[in-house]
Each structure stands twice: as structure tokens, then as C-alpha cells.
Hints:
Its main location: cytoplasm. Keywords: Cilium biogenesis/degradation, Cytoplasm, Cytoskeleton, Microtubule, Repeat, WD repeat. The structure is a single chain. Helix content is 6%, strand content 42%. With 1848 residues, it is mainly β. Among the domains are: 230 residues; 175 residues, 7 Propeller (Methylamine Dehydrogenase, Chain H); 116 residues, YVTN repeat-like/Quinoprotein amine dehydrogenase (Methylamine Dehydrogenase, Chain H), CATH 2.130.10.10; 129 residues, Methylamine Dehydrogenase, Chain H; 150 residues, YVTN repeat-like/Quinoprotein amine dehydrogenase (Methylamine Dehydrogenase, Chain H), CATH 2.130.10. Strands 1, 3, 4, 6, 11, 13 and 16 form a seven-stranded mixed sheet that branches. Helix 11 runs antiparallel to helix 12. The two termini are 87 Å apart.
Amino acid sequence: MAGVWQHPFVNVFKHLRLEEWKKSSKEGDVTSVMDKTLKCTVYRIRGSIPAGNYIQLPKTSSQSLGLTGRYLYILFKPLPGKHFVVHIDVSAEDGQTVRISFSNLFKEFKSTATWLQFPFVCGAIKGSVYDSTAQGARQGMVGPAPSGSRWTCLLLDVQYILSLYLSRRYSHLRSAKLCSNLLVRNLMTSDLLFNPEVNFMEARHAKTLPDGISPMPREMSFPVPKGEKWHDLYDFIMFPSDSSKLPYDSIQKGQSMVTAPGAPMSRSPARERPRSVTISKPVQDRVSLIQQITTPRPMPHRSLLRVESVPERPVSVSARAEEARDLEDRSRGVEQDGGVHVYAHKTNKLSIHRHKSDSEQVICTKVDRPETLSVPPECKKLLPDPIFNLRRIIGFGGCTECFALWTHTGCSVVYPCHAIIVVLEVKTGEQRFLLGHTDKVSALAFNGSCTLLASAQTGSLSMVRLWHFQKGSCLAMFKTHVHSVSYLSFSHSGTVLCGVGKDGHGKTMVVVWNTSQASRSGEVAVLAKAHTDIDIQTMKIAFFDDTRMVSCGKDNVRLWRVRGGTLRSCPVNLGEYHMLEFSDLAFEAGHRPEKEAEDRTLYVSSRSGHILEIDYKNVVLRNVRRVQPGQQQHSERRDKQTFSSGPGIAINSLSVSATFCATGTEDGYLRLWPLDFSGVFLEAEHEGPVSCVAISPEGLRVLSCTSSGELGVLDVPSRGYNTLMRSHTDTLLSFSCHPTHPQLVTVSSDNTIRIWDTGTLQQLYDFTAEEETPCAVTFHPVRQAFACGFSSGTIRFFDITATALQAEHKQHRGAITGLLFSPDGSLMYSCCSLGSVALYSIGHKEQHVLRVLGNVVCKDSERGPMALSLSSDGRLLAFVGPTEYTVTVMDARSLDELLRVDVSILDLDSTTLDCALGLAFSPLKPHHLLVSTSGNKILWLDPKTGRLTREVTQVHKQCCSSLAVSMDTRYMLTAGDRLLKVWDQRQPGTVRPQVFIGHSEAVQQVDFSPDQQSVISAGDAVFIWDFLAAPDPEFTKTDCVPALPFALHSSAALDPSSEHRRDSTFISSGMPRGTAPRPCISSPPRLDISPVQGMDHPDLFSESDDGQEEEGNRDEQERTLVPDTRDNLVESDEQSSVVIIECQPNRAKLLTGSKSNSSSLREGMVKSTHEPPRPDSYTHFHTRFKASCLAKGMCHPPEGQEMLTLRALIGYNGNGRANMAWNPDTGFFSYTCGCVIVVEDLHSGSQRHWLGHPEEISTLALTNDALVLASASGSGDGSSLCQIRIWDTQDGSCMKILTHHRTEVQAMSYSRDDRLFVSIGDYRDGNLALWSTKGYELLATSRLFQPVHAVTFNPAHFDDFASAGPGAVSFWRIETQGTDTQIKVYRVAVPEEVGTAAELTSITYNSTSLLYSGCSTGQVCVWDCQTHRCFLTWEADQGEIGILLCRGNRLLTGSNTRRIRLWCVAAVQELREKGSGASSTSVLMEHEMTLDGAIVSATFDDALEMGIVGTTAGTLWYINWVENTSIRLISGHRNKVMDLAVAHGESHCATCGEDGSLRIWSLQSCELLLQFQVLNQSCLCLAWSPQPKSGPSTEDQRIAAGYSDGTIRIFSVSKTEMEMKIHPHPCAVTSIAYSTSGDVLLTGGKDGQMAITSPRTGMTIRVLSDHKGSPITTIECTGRKLTGLPTDGELWLAASTDRRVSIWASDWSKDKCELLDWLSFPAPTSQKDLDVSVPTLAAFCPWQPGTVVYSGFGVEKEILFYSLIQKQVLLRIPLSHFATSLTLSPAASLIAVGSNERLLRLIDTSAGTKQDFAAYDDGVHLCRVSPSGNLLLTASYNQVLVWDIQNS
Length: 1848
């Protein structure tokens, strides 16, 4: 009955009256606050150390709560960005106490007999970024609680936990300890299972809950506002979960307690198998589609599809790194709680935010495609882990130089180096480290066997750590109760530890701990402690008695003893020496059996030089001696030291062995004395006072330490001295590594400059400045010399080999804050704290000052090594200034200002101004400038434009003091306060940085070693880390060595070869994409697609119809040029016969013909229907007008030596008809784009390309077994034959080429048994051909009365097929007699109800020989094939029906209204049989979808449930009627592609088209990622802003595009919106480019005028009219500065159609723009030869600086290389055709040339070879090589081809 009072529940906080803190305790930062969400008071526990900030229930651990409830409810909320720990102590029935802990600090589940540790998964706000990225993340989402953490009701089934994990029976709850960082509302125990979603009040009005579940008590429930759902606001976690699918090794959110009947169970993210591909919702739908449509399956069935789970959309999120104190928590938590491991919980919704179009109809649309399929959404671990390994430390001491210990073997010494304990092997010099302290180590002590090491940490977090010395593991860590421990002493047995320090009031405090259990349980208990007013310098435990201690200090020597839990002491009567200041003590070593253990001498040393000998047993002073300095007899000889009563020398340390005594004194001497102190028998002089001496265990060596930072060993027998370590004695300020020698130079506040050997850690040289502090230092990159800047403003140049000062510069008045050499060492740069910067010329013998600028650098002396930064190519110099808010970039050769960036305005959301603290250039081009700011950010700026390309936020809690980037730019190092962080810059935001501790002071500088194999950090000491992700050493030797500029004299000359890798076409070197913009559900809005009407229907034209009408007119003109081939037709038709039967409404006429007269009949048809009118139907194929023509010959590349391979093709030809094929059983999927057949693997997205057609492919036909594909292309202008190619789908080989039709092929079809194949020509051809698939022999032909739009075989009768055309349907019958084949046709006119003007545009059979036909009026007619009559019509659409598919009782219609509809036609069969007596006379529309264009192709499965549909917009859609979803599979441009550009990084490209669309594509998957649509305008040119981007983060990138109305629009890619609209031109903008700095936009118009516009303000700076009257075709910029030109500005060129090229030099920062050169190229004298379609092309040559490459219309077809310096043509490359596009590779001497003859030519200028590639059906009007030279992108009308450049 004792537990009756606990029923039904116990409110623990109320039970203990927590607010009174009488029955409970709190420690640290625990406060009560009002929570707005819960609307009540809660307790907030926060602090850096969980063990020091907590609520303890009950007050002491010896008490017990005694709560017997099975379930423990904890209502809490983790604090965002922090870790928390909760400990629950429970008792089992056998009396055993078990601790159950859960924390988001734990990495994995751990279990012992008395402790269970569970990782905890923090929930986030529903729909937040963390919530969406946490799906399935088990290994990656390690870290603190997310920013959107929620209130959580955690239900622990304590009884089940003990039973499940430890097989124990639960008794009661003893205690609970809630540790920082969290908010807690209450705790509750009960035997009842409560549902937190429902409280008692709600339960009264609601339905009954399931059995065994009760409503949550009101005082424990969470409030839910009206209209909200509980689970949208809070998390409920039951552990262990009742779901078998949730893991038992972590505490995480599962499903709701009350589950609807039949609802599927949610899957555990922790138990899901790792996915090889993590993709967004639309593409997961596509993958689901692929799985369905590529998997062979049985016959169709009508069961509904069920979706088990809906995939989530991944959103990249930047990981928040752990900061200094968080890491301190972790360092403690490693011993207590394990590591960090987070499981992410699932949710099932993600908010999609769409951007609205603005007032001028700019539609910014995201396409439902992810960027890639390989980037996981969770935040991944940076690998390798750890990426650093601490290898060497240069340093000693820190807090103290009084502790250095021998190990028991004498092989190693142990000493502190600030916060690190170093174990140094004496012989080899190898180091190992004991890591864990976060502040300076103030004391060390070994036990007698050296198995245990005790170390004390000073500072506000004073603590003691006990170490297992051999393993290097920390056994225990505990508070010292004193502010700082100054001395530690271990007993010989290791069971007692004594510590001395000062308390908070400055009083001396002695604490004695019991460490006997430390090795087993990690518990350390305080035996005794005492406060005293006496001074204690040294205190040691007697090695013969663990309870006795001796101390000495100022005016005292005392004996101590621990007894009965108290610590008592008594002084030693020193008589007249009681006023001395005692410094150290030592017991007599050894033991004689005849004596008692305590009968020995105690030696005590003093600051006055005295050594006292005390009888320890009798506490009597025996003898006093004093060491005094000897007289200087000679300058090089010193008399032996003796003891006398004269003035003494301070003794700092004392060590006694069995045979001698060692003393370390203030005069810098280590002296060895015999035990009778008769005289010194050996001494060693040091540079500073000796602070510590220690005799080795064998007594043959003496370890000595000095206060000047020297650690050494004196070998007594050999009298040799070995310096083990030297160290700076104050903070290091800067360091520099020599590029070729293993040397490191450091400067420190101790006024010394030291040079170290990084291999041996030995100090090589030491330079001392007495009255000034060295502030900055840098090695000369070539010579054995270095420069050092001092606090006085002086810069000194030292020659190391001569150890001499070579030069001294005094141009500065303030302390030197920055000092750098140029990469070749010919220039030196310096800046000072008073704002001046200087440039020096450094020669081998002389050094000169070239330029000094004042008040340009921020006046701040705290910037240190990051004050100046130089790009690796030596061209750009950057610094913070002239104010702390600005960063200035200068020309490093002349100190001319190039750019000034205000970093304070880059963060628009910040309420404070951001200051720049330091900067660094990235090593590789484009040499991003990294700026650290006071807002704890790293800004990646484009050094040419100043644009922010990337931003890393929350880098450190305090300001970043140093940063560096690896040579391959993948890794970034940052230092802040005492931490080092490593960031992966290839995947920013997706990989957590690694954090490294060890420094006890702020890290002043961090950098990679020159060979990239190590990382060096300096602050309190020099840390050398092994970089485990170091690149291949060959990379640093070849790729990363910068090109060195020429020596600077009077003017800065430009190196013409240093930028040989830059792309000549600036448009091609746009920004890279870290992550693609998130796609939205809706597809881009498209304009209506209506058929090309006659001139009498102007109202049906859309904005794009003008072009179609023009094309139609051109087609009419072209039609008159087609030769009459009737004679050939007659000859070919003699081999077959045809019987034509025409049926009219009122009469029937039978025409029969034999084989002899069929030719005359056909000839009459040809004559009567010569030049038929063009059908007014969108279904009929009309080849696009092409002004290009096929080349007569080409240079085929040798087999196997092709320089180009076709990687991918972007686009689908929406102009084709039925030009897509898919087999649902085999998964074969193909479509056409131009003259190429693309076969795509729907699993991987990989493409195969079947080439061979010379013209645009009009249609495809796939056999029923999907083994053979037929494709047809036309004859174009008559120069090529119309081809039907037969392909083997297995290997892609062309088996046969059929030539029969003279123009285009409109439709093709295979019979049901694949024995027959029929092809029908277009309206100009008018022929039907029947083929046998066995050898593809022509069986029969027929001349058609009228154009035919569609043909299809009857699936029920292999010899029947039907065709449809204007006003009639034709039923064809094939009759075979022997080898003769005859075709009979019965032609039936459309019913009068449909109208005589209607055309039948599409047909399809069902399985019972019913024929459905679609009409141009939108009606569907149903025909009985046996009686040839139409018995049913209905209006299925408002437009022309171009697609019909029938499967069973379902019919699909697709029309030019962009709609597809699914009909139930079950009543049609009954109407056919019963007529008006049928029970149902109606058809029902089941579904409807509207797509982005008129429907031109469709293929569905046998149940018409899912399929693929193509539209005139160039899109292929996946349609699923069951789920009523449509997903884009393939996208493309509908109209001509006007321009394209490749983004930096080559993961994306951008294209723009005549339809006003600007599209961004993934080059890996060829998927459309983003589309900007401007209505009623054409987008004619585009350019990426010049800031590159390498990863997914929140920074922006922009694209500028020029339009036909003269406007320029600048679009933000990440924001998916238009940022600015500029109108600098009165007519169309034909060319656009960013300047290399990004400060201005250069645009050219159709009128020949060029505008210089600021993309920031939108203002037009100037207008250039030099090309007025001729449209601008090309504008290109280059940042290369050329030697020999009379200017040093940025170069750019412009070309116009009048064959003129202007070369300009501009300095936009100075508003300079000068015409440098003017090139005019001659044209043929005859006007009739003038070809306006040939553009003028010009570009800068990347591999020949100062050379312009030109091609255009002229006397000869050629490419010219013109030298701007020599003013002459250097090279002429002849061409076979005029070039319509031109691009040059930045990586090799390759030129790609496109021509109007549909050829792409690749010319290797170095080898003199050329290769032609034909994969186009129109002229190649665009060519772009990617920035790296690996990819070539070309465009031909609306198709974009991506080529791989081989051996580039």
C-alpha cells in the first residue's frame, strides 16, 4: 500500500516543491523563465559544462525519490545549437543502481552492467530545413540540437528498459539529474500510459481512447491553439517504441501513439538501408516511374497502385560547427557519455515557397528536377576523420617551467606545453601527447611506478586529470575546488594525490584526494582539505607514507598528515632561518635496512641560496649551507662554487639521488654536488635561470628546465649536454615556412626571432631585438633569407646563411602588421598600423623602395599575419582599408587600386556593421578573396567584381584570427580563440567542419605547409599537424606553382603567359553552382501552341506564330523548287497493284484496277493533285525551314582517334510527330532531337546516340517486341534522300536504310505480328509503302488521293490497317497471292454531323476491331470496321485531336489545346451491338491534365495507367493516371537557342531562346533546373556574373540577359527572381558580357551602339557609337595584361557585322575606356557574293597572349590570328566553309568552328590537324568551350549538344 499515494501519477516537481530548492538542488546557470509556447514557467538549464549546470532530484545522491511508477514522463526542450545530458538513476529489485542516460552528445548506444547510454535525436519544427534534411540521416547529422527544436514529451518505460537491456526487474526511481542545455517543464511518474495529444478536458467531449491509454493530466499537458494539431507543434517519443520498426539503440521520434486503423506504420530512418541515390520528390517519382516502366511485368491488370511512402525533397543545409565550449563539453563527455551521434526523425511534409511573378510578367519558375542524384541531403562527416593528427609541438612550459618528469625507465621525459602534455623520447626525439586540457597545465606528478600521471589545469575551469600513462587515456577528471593548482604530488602507491593552490579569496588551500578507485570506476574522492594563510611553494607526499606530506614556502617548512578525514600540519623550527623564502624540497633517496623508513634527511632549498638539511623523523634542523657566486678571475674561467656565509644565489629547484644532489639556480647554472656539498663536480650553464632539475631513475642523467624555455639533459658520465626543446617564452605573433627548405621562422612577443628545423624541431638560429618587438615575418621564396617587421616600423632583411643583416627599411612609423614577398621574390610588400603600405624591389645586392602609400590600410595593429594578402600568381594585393569596413584590392605590380568592397553592407539583415578583420586569397584561379569579419563570417569575394560568391557563417564564437586555403582550394582552415576548424569547400553546407583543440591561447596564425602535407598553427606554441587529406605531392609541384610575374621597374608590365589557362570567351566562364535551386511542383508556364493558320485566321496566332508563319511561307517557296519525280514513281509502282473503293454518303462508286492500268491511274492522280495545298492541321508534320545546307564533304576523324565524343543531348524535338518510343515491358525508351535518336536509360539517365540521319527526324515506330526501331528523316532541300533507318535496339546498329519517299515521312506502323511495316509520306510525297520486315523488301506502294495524317494496324487482324486524312478514313486490306501482294482500300467520308470541313487527324483501334478517329474539330468518331460505318461521335475536346490511344475500355485523347483526357468507353461496345437499346449511351471522362504544349506523341502501358507524352514545347512528360501526377522527363527549347554559357565548375550551363526563356541545366543529368520566362520578348544573349561558386550555401549568383526590346534583365539564380531591369538600348541587345572585375556590363545592340552599364546601380556609364549602323555580334573581355601595349587596363573587344573589330582598354575604377586598336577586314567586291548570314567572330587567343582570332565573311574562308603588339596577321587557317560560330579552348591549342553546312570542325593548331563531326540538322550557330577545356557545348537551332574533348 506504500505506493497507493502515487496513483494515478506523481508530479515530481510539485512533489519536491522544486521552487523552494529544499528537497532538490541546482548548480550553475539554472533559472526559471516564462515560455511563450507553453504559457507557463519552465526551468532553463544552460552552461558550457553539463556536469556544472544541472538540477538534481532529490538534493543529494544518498537520498532516493522512491517513485515506483513504471513510466517516466519528461517534458523538456533542448536548447538550439547545444548539447544536453539527462541521467536517470533507478534501482532494481536486487538492490543494484542503474544509471540510464540519454543525450544528443552520444555517438552510439553503450551498455555496461550499471550504465545505459542512449543517443537522443532532437526533433525540429515541421517543414524546417533541419526537419527536411534529417530524413534517414543516421551517420551524418551529428551535432547539437537544431535551431527549430521543439518541446518534447519523452515517455520512458523504465521497467521495460531494465528488462530488455539488463535482464533486471525494476523497483523504483532513485534520482534524476537534468544537465545543461535544455528547458524543462516537469517530470511525472505513473503506471498509466497517457496520450499527450488529449488532456482530461478534451477527453470529456471526445470519443473514448483505445484500451490502456489515458488522457494526459491537465497540469502536464501542452497547450494546442485552435486549428492546430498537437504533432505539428510538439514531439512525442515513447522509448522503447512499441513499433518493431523503430531502433532500440537510440531515442528518437516515431509515430503517433494513436494510429488510425489501417494506416501504414512509419518507417524508422535509422533502420532504413542506405540509399545509393538521395533525390527530391519529383525525381523520386521519376525513379518510381522508371522502376515501373523498365521492369518486365505480366499482363495488365486493373488493380490500383499503392504508394507506400512519399519521398522527401532534399534541401542542403550548412552544418553549425561546435564551438570552443561545446568542444570542452565533448572532451568531458568522451569519458562520461561517449561521443556525438544523432539520428534524424522523419516527417512527411515540406513547405514549398513559390515566387510570384512581378508586374512586368517575368515568370521565375523552378523545374521539378534536383541538381544531382548523388548528393545526400544529410549533413555528412568530413573524411578522413580526424583529418589532422598532431605530430610535433615546438614549445615548452606556458603556465610554468617548473615541471618536467622522468619516466620510470628513463627513456622519456614528460613536460607541459601550455594545454598539452608532451611525452618526448630522449633518443629519437619522437613525441606523443596527452590531449584533453583546455587551458594551461600548471602541475604534473607521477606515482612511484609511473603508471598514473596527474595533471592540473589552471584558469577559471581549474581541474585535475588522472591519466593512464601508457595508454594515454584519461581515467578521471574532477574539480579542484581551488582557482589554480600550483603544485601536485602523487603518493608512491598512486592512491593519494595532494594538490596546492589558491581559493577564490587568495588563501592557500591544500586538497588531498583518494585516487585508489580511479583506474576502475573513475571515481576520485576528497580525503581532506584545508585552508591556510601560509605560503606553499612545494608540497610532496612522502614516498614511504601516503598519509604524510611536507611543504615549504615563504617563511615556513611544514609537515602534514591526513588522519580521520582531517588534514593537520606542524611547522619545523628553523630558528634564525625562519624568514627565508623556501623554493623546493627533496627527500633523501634510497633506504637502508637498519633505519626506519621515516628516518631520513629532508633537503630544502631557498631563494637566498641556502640548503637546509632537516632530520625528518625528529623534526630537527641538522645543517645549513649556502651557495654563492665565485669570483671572476678570468673572463673565460670561473672558480669552483663553495658554501659560505657570503651572499647567495637563488636556488629554484633541487633534486637528490643516492649519490649526488642537483641544483638549479637563478644564475642559469645546473650544478651537481656530492651529498656532503663539498664542492661542485659538474655544472652546465644555461641561457636563463634554471627553474627545474630532475635526476633520472638510474642516476646518470639530469633533466633541466629554464625559465627561458629550454629543456635539456646533462649526461653525467660523458659530461655531454643535449638540448631537447627550446621555446618562445611569450605569445607567438607570426611564422613563415620556407618553400623549399624544411625551415620555419617564428617571431614572438619575447622579442626574439627564431628559425627551426621542422624535421628535428631543433632551433637553428636566434635573433634578439632588445627594445622592439618583431611583429611580422616572411621567408624569401627563393633565397635563404627572410624579412621581419618590428613594432618600431622598421623592416629588416636577414641573410640566413651569412647570419647577417642585409638591408633595413624605415618607411613606416607604426608597427608592421603585414609583410609579404611576391612569388618570385622580386617584390616585397609591407603595411603598418598607421595605415601606410609600401612596395619594394628586392634584388640580390640592392633593395629599393618603389612606392609608398599613406592612409590606405586600416589603422589597427591587431591584424597580424592577415593584414596583407597576395594572390598566388602575384598579381593582386589585398588588405583591409582604408576603414575597417572596406577591403581594397590593388594591382600588386604598381599598387594601383583595382577594387574596393564595403563588407558592412553585404549582410542586409544584420543590425550591426560588419568589420573586416583579415583576409587571404585562395591559391587557384579565380583567386577568391576570403575575408573574415567581426560577425564571425568568412566572405568569399570575387577579386575582380567584388561580388559575394559564398558566405560561411558562425565560423567561430569569437572572431576568426587566421584563415588559410589548401592549394587545391578544397579545404579551408580557420582559427578562432583556441580552436582550429577544417572546412570542406567542395561541398559547402553539406559537410560538417572538424574542430581541433589543444591551444590554450588564441591561435595567431594557421597555414598549410608548402608541400601541403602538414598544417602549422601558432599561438602559445607551434603545433605541426599531419594533414591526412593531403593531396598528391605531384599536384603541388605542377598545378599549383603560380606563374611568376616579371620584375617590376618603372611601370608594371604584364606577363602575357601567366594566364594561359584562361578561357578566351568570358561568357563561358560563369559561376559554378554548389547546389541547384530547389525545384517546385509546378512546371514553367508556357504559351498556347496553336496550329499555323492561314492568313484569314489572324486571331489564332500566338506570340510565336509569327515565326511559324514565316517558316510556312518559306516552305511554300521551297515547294516550287522540288523537281517532278513522277516518272520514277511510275516505275517503282509497277511492281504492285491497288484497288481503291470510295464511299460517299449518298452513293458508292467502285473502282477496280489491274496491274497493267494501275500506273496510268496513279499518273492521273499525280497530275490532278500536283502541288497539293499544305494541310491545315498541326498533326501533319511540317519540317522546319532551314537556310543551311549539307556539306559536300568532310574530314572524318580516324577511328579511335576522335577528339570529340558526344556525351549528352539536351532537348526533345517537339516539331516531330510520334517521335518518341517506349516499351513498358522491356523499358526501352527513345526519342529524337534534330537528326539524332537519343536512347536513354531511365534508371541511370545515361544516353546513347544513334547518328546517321542527315535531316530532321519526323517520326519513329517500334516493333511490338521492342527489338527493332524504325526512324524516318526527310530530304530537306532535295540534296539528300528521304531515309527510313531500321535499328537494332539491342546494340544500336543500323540494319537497313530504306529509300522510297521523296520528301518527308508522316507516319509509320508495324503490324501486330511485326511481319509488315507501312510508311506514309507527307502531303508533298503522297505515297504509301508496304514493306516486309523480312529483309525489308518493298511489297506494295500506293499513291494517295489526299494527305494522310495517321496510319495504324488493326491488332485483331494482321492484314488490316487504317489511315486518316482530310474528310475521310481509309480501311486497307492486304491480300497476298504467292509472291504478289495487293492492297484494297475502302474510303469512307466523315459523317455529316462532324462537318464536311473536318479532317480526321488521329486514329486508334481497340481489341475488338473498333476504330476511334479524332477530328480537327475536337470530336471523336467510332467506326465499325466490319460495316465501315460510323455509329457514334462525341465532342472530346475544343481543339484538334492529334493523339488517340485505346486500351480495353479506356481511351486517351490529346489535342492542341494542351490537354490530355482519359475516357471510359465501356458503353461503346454495347452501342455497337444494341444501338439505341443499349443500357448506357454515354462515355465518361475520368481524368484530365493540361500540359505545356500541343500533344504530338504518346505511349502508354496496356492499362492506360501510366505513360509518356511529348508536346510541341519540347517536353516529355511522365503521366500517372492512378496518382493523377505529371512529371517532366525531358525538357528542351521550343525555339532557337540564341546563346549559351557554361558555369564555372562545369556542373551547369545556361541557355536562352527566342521564346524569351532563360534556362539553367545540369550538365550531369541534362535536366532543367530553373527557368526564367519573359513574355512577348526574345532573349538574345546572356552572361554569368563572374563570381564562381563551389558549393551549396546561401550566397547568390546572377545571370544577365539581353532582350529584343533593348532591355537587360539581371536574374538572381538562388532567389529565382529578377533583381534588376535596365534599358540602355533603343533596339535589341545582341551581345552581352561582364567585365572581368564584374563592375560593369558591356552590351551591344542591333544598331551597333555599345553601352557600359553598372549592374549594381543600373545606370548607363557611357555609350560607344564606333560600330553604329552594324549589329554587334561579339563582346569579349580578358583580364590579361599584355607587355608591349601602351596601357595597363582591362582589355575587351567588340565585333560587328560589317567585319570590324575594335579593341579597348578600360580601367573601370578610374572611369577610363580607350580605343586601343581597330581592325577592318575586306569583303568580296561583288555585292552578289555578300552573305549576310555569316557573322563576324572574334576572340582573344588563350595560348597566344596579345593575339586576336578573327573569322568572318571575306574573300577567303579562313581564320586569322592577328597580333595586337606586332600589328600584323601571324597565322591563317583555311576553312572549307564560312564559320558561323567560333570558340577557343583555354586548356589546349584547339579551335572549334561551326558552319552553316551543319558541320562542327575541331582544329588542333599545334598539330595542324582537323576533324569534322556531323550530328546536326541545321547550321551550328553556337560553340562554347567550358572554362577547363574539358567540354564543348554547341547549339543548332533548338538542340544543345554536349561533347567531351578527348586529351584536352
